[in-house]
Design brief:
Length: about 150
């Protein structure tokens, strides 16, 4: 019984130590994440998929494709394959939300991959993405899951 009470007290102290953000701070964080998404999409179009996915990744980011790709550098290697060099991707979030503490957020929306096969035919893959964003110590938002 004593350990349960201790656990409850420690849980309360831990939870109360994390400041909640107010509604205007939350709106600001949502706008920042939405801007990060726009900048991410723009960089993918202008500098390539590998560069964009590397730049916007947190050091410990993970992407789920056919398998999990862990770490910023491994993500760059993954997207440096020939297929991605010749492909384009565009996306836009349909929804963005931020945690009560303002340091985590997520987006989801639609994406479009386009690539050409050896005959020049354009192939399209459409889907839904989900990205988890984490505010870094420097104030920038980087994805930790995609």
């Amino acid at each position: 019984m004593r350990s349960i009470a201790s656990f409850l007290v420690l849980s309360f102290l831990f939870y109360s130590c994390h400041e909640k953000i107010n509604s205007s701070q939350k709106e600001k964080a949502v706008r920042e994440i939405q801007q990060a998404e726009k900048d991410f999409d723009k960089m993918a179009a202008e500098k390539g998929i590998a560069e964009a996915f590397w730049f916007f990744a947190a050091p410990d980011a993970v992407i789920r494709r056919d398998s999990l790709v862990k770490g910023k550098e491994n993500i760059r290697v993954f997207y440096s394959k020939d297929f991605y060099e010749a492909a384009t991707v565009t996306w836009a979030p349909d929804f963005t939300d931020v945690s009560e503490t303002g340091d985590l957020g997520y987006t989801y929306g639609k994406y479009l991959w386009q690539s050409k096969d050896s005959t020049g035919k354009v192939n399209e893959i459409r889907g839904v993405f989900h990205t988890v964003w984490k505010k870094q110590q420097d104030g920038n938002w980087k994805y930790v899951w995609d």
